[in-house]
Amino acid sequence: MIKDLSIFTKKEVMIMGGLGFSAGLPIMLVFSTLSVWLVKAGVERSTVTLFSWAGFAYSFKFLWSPIVDKFQIPLLHKIGHRKSWLLITQILIFFSIILTSYSDPQNNLKFMAFAIVLIAFFSATQDIVIDAFRIESAPEKKQGPLASMYLAGYRIAMIVSGAGSLWLASIMSDENYQTEVWKNVYQIIGFFMIIGFISTALCKEPTNNKVKKINYKNQLKFTFSTILSILIFFVFFLNIPEVKVLNHFYNFFYNIFKIVFSFGVALISLLILEKINFLPKKQSREIFINPIIDFFRRYKKIALMILLLIGLYRIADVVMGVMANIFYLEKGYEIKDIATFSKFFGLIATILGGIFGGTFAMKFGTYKSLLIGAITAALTNVLFAFLAIIEKNLFYLATIIIADNLASGFAGAAFVVYLSSLTSIKFTATQYALFTSLMLFIPKLIAGYAGGIVDVINYPSFFIFTAVLGFPVVFLIIFLNKRKL
To answer: Domains in the chain, please, with CATH?
Structure first.
């Protein structure tokens, strides 16, 4: 056992922990810490949960993953393809956090939304690079320790930007809303991005990186085309009229229609650019189409079931998680309680669960780990229903949060190993971005309505509802385990 754990002390594994820290730091500033800021500023519950849709940047990152995968950054590419992208995204994340610190949700909610979307966009782009870097740095049998250390660094960063930011806010204020307090909090947390800069400086460019060089003119064409398609997507999505008379159920499917339609228009725009010979047909197919064809060619009949598993695996965690901080505050827990039990002890439990999950996957196989993670992640949501019906109690709060985070960490590590095993080394960044985009799309879409759902069915029923959402995943895992290649 000690020999198994010694792998976590190797330089490349520890650097992966630093890169995980860089990936995890922005996430709480986009979601959890932001929700506390918004609630304290007096923003309505249903509006607070809609801010979780900033997470669609993580769901649609596959749209620009080909740029990250194939194109070189002028001048900086000399330090390495992956390293240059790491550095530039980390710098952009830092400046986006500073920009967010100057927003005030009471006076200009749109400016805050814009700044938060920037953090999410650059953070999602960094995730593309780190995922590709990790997969290219070691063979599949060694992905367990790398995934565990990545998640450990990720969760430690979440402690810093989650518990750390809330502790800072509680120290600097008297529980009343003060814009200057949150400005200082975001700026202090932003400077922890230096850990990402150091990790990037120390890491070695993966030797398995098989990026094919594309001439500079075509790089510009592909970059322009991708950015144009993304802009077209958002122009259509934001301008399709809302249907306010519909209830939440119909509204959910109407938004799916908006997304699918807008995505279809964006794809058509790329096809038009190809037809008029602006995009070279052979290279555009190689970059955008071949990664998808490769996946279906390798997994054949079970490919669609794998994609369904990817799309649903984290649904119980994500939908419940977007309401957690709002629930704690409305239940009467103070910011310092949330910081201590949810963002500190809870995330330490997640780290331990992640280490255990990665080691378990290495020893006993990915599907067993996925199954245990899916069952426990769903069942622990039921504990929150119990927390919702009892009186305020710090002991029960701490116990339930730790149990939930142990399960979440285990499931997360197992899932990262699983996604890594599905990825072809020929299309590392693009395929992994597709998988993780799919992983978050449905959960984030439902999570945006979480506030409205609670308004209708109350907290206990909501937490049970999120647990039920997670159980179809169990049957998918059993089905795929019997039919695995």
So the answer is: 2-482 (1.20.1250.20)
